[in-house]
């Protein structure tokens, strides 16, 4: 690559500015060099974008200039041109994965808050329509079941949620089942698991088994299966938990 090649002068001036730690000037000169198609200018501009020297860090823009450097370097003088392309491509893939994870996390949190808000609204409407002072306490559960039988799921869920918030395990289990089936509110695995775990922690065998089924990670899945298996008063649940533990290769005598 000759000394008098188009863009070479700006590149050499850029090197001097970089040596003097004047990265803003160096970046501007490398940019001028790169825009004239000088391979070394493209390479140094890619480095500036990659490391945030004299410009805001931007891996995608860096990759574009690194590819130009590799393309214009017909004599193979820039040994690291292709290597820089590969490193930047890897970095961008990592960034894209991280961006997807962050976007999913943000969406999940937004959905969780929306579901929680809807739940609070269901409780508010239920308390407004069926105030405690107007109805005897022992009537509420019967009312909820009657609404459920009549397929008035929203009213039923509103009442069950009031019990669930108060810590009634059976109501927590029912709320979990209703969220699983999308009865009274949009189906939500997250809210189903939230209420099912509340009930499971109070030793409701059905809830413990359902918690296992809702889990995607093996460790909590086995944890709740083991809990359900240890319950002796509900033979059906115990048998289902036993069968699944055997399929997973968990020795029952170690439980």
Describe this protein's structure.
The protein has 255 residues and is mostly helical. It has helices spanning 8-19, 23-35, 39-51, 59-72, 81-129, 137-149, 153-165, 169-181, 189-200, 205-214, 218-230, 235-247. Helix 1 (8-19) packs antiparallel against helix 2, helix 3 packs antiparallel against helix 4 (59-72) and helix 8 (169-181) packs antiparallel against helix 9. The longest helix has 49 residues, at 81-129. It is elongated, with a radius of gyration of 32 Å.
Outline:
With 255 residues, this protein is mainly alpha-helical. The chain has helices spanning 8-19, 23-35, 39-51, 59-72, 81-129, 137-149, 153-165, 169-181, 189-200, 205-214, 218-230, 235-247. Helix 4 runs antiparallel to helix 5.
Features:
255 residues; 74% helix; 0% strand; mainly alpha; 12 helices; elongated
| Largest sheet report | none
Find the structural class using helix and strand composition: mainly alpha
First and last CA, distance:
73 Å
The H-and-E topology, N to C, reads as HHHHHHHHHHHH
Secondary structure blueprint with pairings:
Blueprint: H1 8-19, H2 23-35, H3 39-51, H4 59-72, H5 81-129, H6 137-149, H7 153-165, H8 169-181, H9 189-200, H10 205-214, H11 218-230, H12 235-247
Helix pairs in contact: 1-2, 2-3, 3-4, 4-5, 5-7, 6-7, 7-8, 8-9, 9-10, 10-11, 11-12
